[in-house]
UniProtKB/TrEMBL annotation:
Residue segments, region Disordered: 150-196
Gene3D superfamilies: Tetratricopeptide repeat domain (1.25.40.10)
Segments traversing the membrane: 272-292
Matches recorded under InterPro entries: TPR-like_helical_dom_sf (IPR011990)
Top-level taxon of origin: Bacteria
Biased composition annotated in UniProt, kind: Basic and acidic residues: 150-161
Organism encoding this protein: Rhabdobacter roseus
Phylogenetic classification of the source organism: Bacteria, Pseudomonadati, Bacteroidota, Cytophagia, Cytophagales
Keyword Chloroplast listed: no
Comp. bias regions, Polar residues: 165-182
Name listed for the protein in its UniProt record: Tetratricopeptide (TPR) repeat protein
Length: 319
């Protein structure tokens, strides 16, 4: 009977420890694995001892990663986080750290319109994301803007190429032209298609801007909520009694790091509000582009910086 009670107690500690370990909650996992060694006849249990050694290694790696982040060495921190995930592929906490870091870097390049670098970093975040659909959307947006820039560059180069190759005798060309020029049906059809494509281009571009701004706003809000949840989780773990006293320096450093990250993320709330404004402006602009018939008058829709608040303003003008 005594041995069965000891086995049951060991199994309870082991089950709790494994659950904490799988989530990446290494401090609680360490406590439970040590409890396993306190059970009679399990003082030298090889499983618990092996896990304690591994957890201590992962705790040290996580501390080094957060120190690197605080020192502005983001890629070094990401490398340390990746080592943790290699040791424990189920670690959801570290996967969130990696997702937040790479999406944050990608968003910074996206804001600078450096879509090639943004795409690379979104792709690095993708394997660790719990909701990959949003990141895949941002990758698609980046690819769309990369293609748009390439098309614009190609069109800008076409006049110079034509000027370089257009050296034929214009007088002979003029003599060979008929007196009465009549547009063929094919030419008229081509011109109409070009007009439709000309109007379709702004609609697609505005749609891409709206999607990108919406995804960016969602990403900012998601990052803030994740950081806030992490502070609350670590607070409960390091101060289970709720007396606002954290016993060890290592636990206090972990809580302080999480608190600072949440505070930094909260400062991005103004960008979140501005992004929602951009989504609204883009939606309104698309409605105007779709609803307003093509007029013989000169009309123009422009998106400009708002003079009254953060965000963009839409202007429709005609002559």
């Amino acid at each position: 009977m005594h041995w069965k009670l000891a086995d049951d107690e060991y199994d309870r500690y082991k089950k709790r420890a494994d659950a904490f370990f799988d989530r990446g909650d290494y401090l609680n996992a360490l406590r439970q694995y040590r409890n396993c060694l306190e059970v009679p006849t399990y003082e030298n249990d090889p499983y618990a001892k092996g896990r304690i050694a591994l957890v201590e290694k992962l705790v040290k790696l996580r501390e080094e990663a957060h120190k690197a982040l605080n020192a502005g060495k983001g890629e070094e921190a990401a490398g340390l986080f990746e080592q943790i995930v290699m040791e424990n592929p189920k670690d959801s906490i570290t996967k969130v750290n990696l997702t937040d870091y790479w999406t944050g870097e990608a968003t910074r390049y996206y804001e600078q319109q450096n879509y090639e670098e943004a795409k690379v970093r979104y792709q690095k975040a993708l394997p660790y994301a719990t909701k990959p659909a949003l990141i895949q959307l941002q990758i698609q947006n980046s690819e769309a803007f990369i293609k748009l820039k390439a098309d614009q560059n190609r069109k800008a180069e076409e006049p110079s190429k034509k000027a370089a190759t257009g050296s034929q005798d214009t007088s002979s060309v003029a003599r060979s032209k008929p007196n009465n020029l009549i547009d063929s049906p094919e030419k008229t059809k081509s011109a109409n298609a070009a007009t439709r494509n000309h109007r379709l281009g702004p609609k697609l571009l505005v749609g891409a801007v709206g999607l990108g701004a919406g995804a960016y706003a969602y990403s900012l809000n998601k990052q803030y909520q994740t950081k806030l949840d992490e502070v609350n989780r670590i607070g409960k773990m390091t101060d289970p009694d709720g007396d606002h006293i954290i016993m060890t320096a290592g636990e206090y450093d972990q809580w302080q790091t999480a608190y600072n990250e949440a505070k930094d993320s909260k400062r991005n709330r103004s960008k979140f509000v501005a992004s929602l404004g951009v989504v609204g402006v883009a939606a309104l602009t698309e409605v105007l582009l779709l609803a307003i018939p093509k007029s013989r008058k000169s009309t123009r829709i422009s998106i400009e910086s708002s003079t009254q608040s953060l965000g963009l303003g839409v202007r429709y003008t005609f002559k």
